[in-house]
């Protein structure tokens, strides 16, 4: 009796978790014709979900479904026929009214005869236990039409009990979860698990990347083991991580309803489904249920040469500071991705030298095999007559959003070959280091070219005999950030000469916390405290900064604080400013520093009242709950009042992810003899030198030299014009996201997000013996354009949403020092220019015949300029103020 009760409970439990019926999937009755209505619609918007702000379309039809064959050995083995009839295409947004592109157009005119006939041809679906065994249609049907049929057929794949499994349907091989209730089944498809071959790429850096979320829920209402209604909704939403106004959303819905049943075709007899299919129509062929790729053909579209002829006027040198230059650059990069090598090479060869650098930027940024082959054929690295073009190519490679092994292999080959310019040879190696890091971040560390490049960098550093070669490989390692290179960096940091030692320590500074081990910090402590040899101030302060920024111990912090007061005067002031900046900005080390400062021996007036002009300051450019932009400026002077080093950094953070947006370092040494001053300890024999080094978007660039040596200094002082020297100038493709989506309705969606900028970073150092004054100037000029393009295509009608955001900004830092007396006078200022901020939106619906609807919006505002605080005495945050301008909206035909 107890056993019977247990069995009864198990049966009731199983019943409650499944839908009433005798099969595991849908089951059709013999000799019946099921008449249903079907519709699929798609909407695109900016994520606000308002129908009036959306564009899209609906495809609807009647559907006849009949059972042709059932396996006599099992009810769950069925062959069904599905036929779409009375197809119609219309707007989802009925408010379109007279502006509707479908008004007055029959389905035949909208779709074309071939498409309409193909869509209304019957298809066959072989189901076993409710799952698709095979999908049958006719050969040579348009792929886009077959996909719509696949989308309808996939709705008939379901199971009537709860559970998680993998299914193959139009979306690919996907993980699905079923929740069965009385008379209802809910199917949740994990779209991020779907395995389907689709093109696409994205920017790996999280700050510059795109976040997306996709959901798919299908609800079945079941009666007598067959559907009376199916409602499927699939959404794809995305947003640019660092700019939350850049968003988009695709909503795709399918609806299937049973209207009636009537007498249908008699059941065909036979043992095998294949025999039945041949008897129905021998022209049927099995095709994959998974959606297939199709390309819409552009009729009468311009060639790549015609595109360039309309683009080149915007890329003249004098126009690069304008947003339209970047906008056209991004558009042309997209066109180049479909161009052949010969077409690209033809444009390169015919262009003038004024526009050629911008064309090289675009061709390299396209990142296709054809564009790479074309640019490599065009550039002659054996000659030093086209250094500007070679450098623009290399920097564009370094900023590549999704580099591949082919690009790295090409640069390795160039490095091993003959290169006419030593500067270009150095730049090639530096960019090889960048590509190694980017490929490793994308799980490509074991690629043959990456392994070869690692050996090239580490082996070259180990065997380097000339200072120039050592510097080159250290700069490459500064980009590659190879963990296996840390022992070599420690060796050069501690035992190397001044400039090499400083470069090695600044390279260590770029490694993440897990790599700054206790062993690394032991070496850095020896460098700072000069336990083995005397080091330059720049090396010692960098070593201290690494220790303080990487989980310092109590004793490490205490020893650094105790050293203040025993250092050269300006270094005393600099280290004091660093500690105060850590406390004021609440950096991670602030807690341990506060603990140490409770000891009177470390925290007293004698130590904290040191005078000097060196400084360190960190502040916010912008701050929000999900992101922050920070700037930091630290300036170290020599005891004679001459600039030793200025270091300006800008970082962008999204959560825990960060991007080193820019760093501009100006260094000078060995200038004390000019004013008959005494050099600081350890710097008595330094050659006269001044130069600038820059990091841009996590890429270390090749440093530039203002002068090197006393004679070079004097000649440039006598002939100086005060004009700044450019560190980097060009067009950069910074954000690059491309995604092709197979919607479960059968439609194809594309999401494109691109961000480009025209940038010009320059710097100058002026030195006047007459006025006993030095001045450094760093100027950043940036124009940024971010574009998004979302489309949903059925081959005969297309809906799209285009949006763009653009601004033109400038940031200038000037430091002036008068050293005619001590303490010398210092004036520092960092100003952000007033910047326009523009937003555009364009929505459209277009037939393949050319008729279309378009709606456009434009919004403008002005970001007020401001001056950033650079001293702790003036720490009020620079606030961004928007001055709104009138909006404009237009819509109509095209």
From TrEMBL:
One of its GO terms (molecular function) is cholesterol transfer activity. InterPro entries: Lipid_transp_b-sht_shell, Lipovitellin_superhlx_dom, MTP_lip-bd, MTTP, Vitellinogen_b-sht_N, Vitellogenin_N. The gene is MTTP. This is Microsomal triglyceride transfer protein large subunit. Gene3D superfamilies: Lipovitellin, beta-sheet shell regions, chain A (2.30.230.10), Vitellinogen, superhelical (1.25.10.20). The keyword Repeat does not apply. Residues 28-659 form the Vitellogenin domain. The keyword Cell division does not apply. It comes from the Eukaryota. One of its GO terms (cellular component) is basolateral plasma membrane. Catalyzes the transport of triglyceride, cholesteryl ester, and phospholipid between phospholipid surfaces. Required for the assembly and secretion of plasma lipoproteins that contain apolipoprotein B. May be involved in regulating cholesteryl ester biosynthesis in cells that produce lipoproteins. Keywords: Disulfide bond, Endoplasmic reticulum, Lipid transport, Signal, Transport. One of its GO terms (biological process) is cholesterol homeostasis. Transmembrane segments: none annotated. SUPFAM superfamilies: Lipovitellin-phosvitin complex, beta-sheet shell regions, Lipovitellin-phosvitin complex, superhelical domain. It is found in: Endoplasmic reticulum.
């Amino acid at each position: 009796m107890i056993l019977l009760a247990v069995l009864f409970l198990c049966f009731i439990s199983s019943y409650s978790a499944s839908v009433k019926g005798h099969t595991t999937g849908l089951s059709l009755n013999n000799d019946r014709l099921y008449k249903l209505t079907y519709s699929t619609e798609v909407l695109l918007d900016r994520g606000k979900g308002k129908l009036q702000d959306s564009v899209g379309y609906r495809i609807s039809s009647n559907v006849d479904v009949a059972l042709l064959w059932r396996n006599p050995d099992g009810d769950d083995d069925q062959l069904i026929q599905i036929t779409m009839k009375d197809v119609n295409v219309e707007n989802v947004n009925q408010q379109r009214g007279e502006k509707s592109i479908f008004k007055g157009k029959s389905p035949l005119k909208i779709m074309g005869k071939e498409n309409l006939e193909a869509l209304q041809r019957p298809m066959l679906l072989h189901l076993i236990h409710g799952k698709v065994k095979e999908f049958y249609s006719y050969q040579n049907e348009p792929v886009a039409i077959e996909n719509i049929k696949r989308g309808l057929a996939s709705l008939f794949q379901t199971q009537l009990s709860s559970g998680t499994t993998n299914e193959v349907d139009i979306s690919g091989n996907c993980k699905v979860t079923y929740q069965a209730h009385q008379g209802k089944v809910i199917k949740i498809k994990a779209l991020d698990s779907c395995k389907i071959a689709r093109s696409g790429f994205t920017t790996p850096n999280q700050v510059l990347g795109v976040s997306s979320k996709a959901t798919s829920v299908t609800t079945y209402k079941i009666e007598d083991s067959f559907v009376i209604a199916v409602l499927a909704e699939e959404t794809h939403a995305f947003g640019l991580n660092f700019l939350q106004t850049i968003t988009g959303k695709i909503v795709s819905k399918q609806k299937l309803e049973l209207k009636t049943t009537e007498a249908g075709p008699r059941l065909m007899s036979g043992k095998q489904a294949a025999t039945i299919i041949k008897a129905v129509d021998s022209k049927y062929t099995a095709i994959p249920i998974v959606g297939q790729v199709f390309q819409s053909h552009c009729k009468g579209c311009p060639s790549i040469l015609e595109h360039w002829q309309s683009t080149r006027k915007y890329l003249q040198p004098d126009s690069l500071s304008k947003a339209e230059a970047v906008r056209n650059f991004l558009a042309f990069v997209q066109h180049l991705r479909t161009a052949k090598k010969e077409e690209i090479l033809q444009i390169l060869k015919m262009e003038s030298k004024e526009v050629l650098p911008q064309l090289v930027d675009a061709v390299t940024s396209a990142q296709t095999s054809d564009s790479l082959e074309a640019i490599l054929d065009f550039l002659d690295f054996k000659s030093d007559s086209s250094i500007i073009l070679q450098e623009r190519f290399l920097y564009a490679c370094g900023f590549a959003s999704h580099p591949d092994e082919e690009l790295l292999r090409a640069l390795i080959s160039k490095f091993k070959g003959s290169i006419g310019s030593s500067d270009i040879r150095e730049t090639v190696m530096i960019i090889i280091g960048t590509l190694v890091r980017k490929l490793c971040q994308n799980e490509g560390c074991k690629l043959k070219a990456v392994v070869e490049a690692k050996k090239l960098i580490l082996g070259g550093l180990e065997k380097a005999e000339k200072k120039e070669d050592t510097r080159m490989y250290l700069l490459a390692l500064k980009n590659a950030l190879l963990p296996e290179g840390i022992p070599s960096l420690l060796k050069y940091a501690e035992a190397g000469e001044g400039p090499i030692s400083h470069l090695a320590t600044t390279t260590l500074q770029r490694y993440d916390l897990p790599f700054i081990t206790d062993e690394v910090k032991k070496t850095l402590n020896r460098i700072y405290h000069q336990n083995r040899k005397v080091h330059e101030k720049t090396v010692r302060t960098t070593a201290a900064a690494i220790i303080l920024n990487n989980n310092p111990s109590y004793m490490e912090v205490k020893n650094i604080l105790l050293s203040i007061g025993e250092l050269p005067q300006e270094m005393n002031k600099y280290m004091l400013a660093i500690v105060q900046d850590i406390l004021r900005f609440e950096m991670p080390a602030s807690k341990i520093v506060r603990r140490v400062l409770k000891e009177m021996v470390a925290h007293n007036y004698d130590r904290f009242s040191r005078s000097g002009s060196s400084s360190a300051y960190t502040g916010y450019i912008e701050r929000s709950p999900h992101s922050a932009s920070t700037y930091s400026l630290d300036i170290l002077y020599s005891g004679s009042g001459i600039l030793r080093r200025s270091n300006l950094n800008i970082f962008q953070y999204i959560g825990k992810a960060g991007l080193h947006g820019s760093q501009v370092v100006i260094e000078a040494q060995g200038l004390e003899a000019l004013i008959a001053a005494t050099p600081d300890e350890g710097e008595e024999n330094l050659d006269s030198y001044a130069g600038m080094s820059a990091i841009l978007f996590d890429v270390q660039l090749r440093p530039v030299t203002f002068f090197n040596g006393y004679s070079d200094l004097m000649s440039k002082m006598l002939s100086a014009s005060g004009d700044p020297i450019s560190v980097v100038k060009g067009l950069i493709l910074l954000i690059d996201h491309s995604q092709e989506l197979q919607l479960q309705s059968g439609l194809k969606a594309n999401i494109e997000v691109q961000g480009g900028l025209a940038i010009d970073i320059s710097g100058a150092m002026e030195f006047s013996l007459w006025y006993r004054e030095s001045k450094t100037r760093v100027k950043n000029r940036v124009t940024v354009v971010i574009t998004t393009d979302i489309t949903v295509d059925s081959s005969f009608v297309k809906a799209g949403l285009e949006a763009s955001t653009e601004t033109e900004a400038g940031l200038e830092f000037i430091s002036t020092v008068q050293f005619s007396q001590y303490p010398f006078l210092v004036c520092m200022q960092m100003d952000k220019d007033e910047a326009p901020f523009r937003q555009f939106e364009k929505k459209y619906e277009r037939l393949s015949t050319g008729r279309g609807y378009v709606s456009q919006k434009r919004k403008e505002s002005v970001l007020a300029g401001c001056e950033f605080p650079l001293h702790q005495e003036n720490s009020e945050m620079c606030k961004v103020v928007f001055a709104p301008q009138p909006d404009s909206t237009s819509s109509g035909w095209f």
